[in-house]
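## retry 2 of 3
previous attempt timed out at serialization; input unchanged, resubmitting
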Amino acid sequence: AKLAHFCSMCGPHFCSMKITQDVRDYAAAQGLTNEAALTQGMATKSIEFVKQGAEVYRKV
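## retry succeeded, writing output
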């Protein structure tokens, strides 16, 4: 039986199946629809991106 919560092609750090499930879990916990959770999450990340300088390739 498979116990991992991600597919074997992507791995645990970037798996579209896991990301989708995380969005569903977040939406359920916040009492939002999946679409509303995505919209809220993208707005939050947009603000974070701008506060960090709005550069795609940051200098390390």
